[in-house]
Design a protein that fits this description.
CATH superfamily of the largest domain in chain A: Tetracycline Repressor, domain 2
GO molecular function (chains A, B): DNA-binding transcription factor activity; transcription cis-regulatory region binding
Oligomer: homodimer
Mean pLDDT of chain A: 83
Keywords (chains A, B): DNA-binding
Distance between the termini of chain A: 82 Å
Largest sheet of chain A: none
Shape of chain A: elongated
CATH topology of the largest domain in chain A: Tetracycline Repressor, domain 2
Low-confidence stretches of chain A: 201-209
Protein name (chains A, B): TetR family transcriptional regulator
CATH architecture of the largest domain in chain A: Orthogonal Bundle
Radius of gyration of chain A: 22 Å
Pfam family, one (chains A, B): TetR_N
CATH class of the largest domain in chain A: Mainly Alpha
Structural class of chain A: mainly alpha
Organism (chains A, B): Actinospica durhamensis
Strand content of chain A: under 5%
Order of helices and strands of chain A: HHHHHHHHHH
Number of strands of chain A: 0
DNA sequence: GGATTTATTCATCACGGTTGAAATGGTGGG
DNA sequence: CCCACCATTTCAACCGTGATGAATAAATCC
């Protein structure tokens, strides 16, 4: 009976905000962004739907808040940067795959990735995070104009792997074990980072060498 | 006049279906899937919104129908397969960039890509097209189990380039000219297609610091 | 202990996709 | 030629969505 009784603030100190966040997190992971309605979140948190707007402003705000408390993938990857450049491809790949293969951290990441494509604003956020926290450092270590480009193409390769393995689930990539991937993909990363590029003249064909 | 008089079939033989498709195509490209409402499409086609459901079943159906009449990117890429394997990276990259850089073909492709991430069913479609029309052939030419994996990783690299350049618009990739990209990226593709992979022992290695 | 701030519910809006019924033109069999 | 049937079209309504503003009650501050 204490249930649906009138309006006004509830007694005690129920951490409603956390409750909502928790319910939202579960539902977003289970049903995706579109598949999760604010009313459903409110229901799961046993709260009125208007409270979500009150606390988080909007559904996107709620989504952003749930993302904020999931492990940041770039954080993980950045820790691999300082080491020996020569072994960076293996280390970066290993760290990346580990983060995304573990459902605990991977599922939120996939959800976020979906959100990225959904919302242009989210896309800005990821782009800048990727540049500022990762590629800029890498570019600096590589040096010069070429360094910036090499770093970006490195990022493209990483992104491609994630996209095909976790979002598109393309076979056989999706079911290969991570060591196999590291072994086969690292040389390509290495080529972009350190490999010589063919002379400008050698465009259309493979050129000599 | 023929004006907005009552209900019932209109006189003559107006190809309403085409009108709707045309309007939908324009709006989807301009405003994206979410940003395009059925009522807006109906308005632009000068038709009642219910007609869309009548002809295409649902908004997704309409989206699918508009996609069906845009140039197929895989078709383009597949034409590059038969040639000399040694020059495949350059040829494939060039063809890919050309298709996506031209707004005329590229914009629909970006729209489709957004749709892919949006809808799991659409994702299946792309995955199978990519595998059946492209990677399977490439895998066969490369041969063996490794061939399948090399082909898939090749696809991942291509996908990564598209994702970062056209969807995420990561700099400096987004503003590099296509020749530059071909020059710098082709060696990496080559590494995945033909390069030797390090012996199994050398795996996470890094180990011997 | 009153004023203010914070938290909560309720009622309601505007909008989006979808549906069912009614109306109207086209078409073919008799 | 007329009437039954089918295809097309509009209209009105439904239901679910995210969002907002007013009313209300507890907590907090001075």
């Amino acid at each position: 009976m204490n249930k649906s009784s009138g309006r006004g603030r509830r007694a005690g100190a129920p951490d409603t905000r956390e409750q909502i966040l928790d319910a939202a997190r579960r539902l977003f992971l289970a049903n995706g962004y579109e598949g999760t309605t604010m009313r459903a979140v409110a229901g799961a948190a046993d709260v009125d739907a208007a409270l979500i707007s009150y606390f988080f402003g909007s559904k996107r705000g709620l989504f952003g808040a749930t993302l904020a408390l999931t492990a940041n993938p770039l954080e993980v990857a950045r820790q691999e940067l300082p080491g020996d450049l020569a072994t960076l491809p293996e280390r970066a790949l290993t760290a990346l795959l580990q983060a995304w293969d573990d459902p605990r951290t991977g599922e939120p990441l996939v959800a976020m990735l979906r959100g990225v494509v959904l919302d242009p604003g989210m896309s800005d956020l990821v782009r800048e995070a990727m540049h500022g926290e990762l590629l800029a450092h890498l570019a600096e270590r590589l040096g010069g104009v070429e360094g910036g480009r090499r770093a970006a193409l490195f990022g493209a390769q990483m992104g491609g792997l994630i996209f095909t393995r976790y979002l598109l689930r393309l076979e056989p990539i999706a079911s290969m074990n991570s060591q196999e991937i590291v072994r086969m993909y690292a040389p390509a990363l290495r080529a972009v980072l350190f490999g010589p590029h063919p002379g400008r003249a050698a465009l259309p064909h493979t050129g000599r060498r």
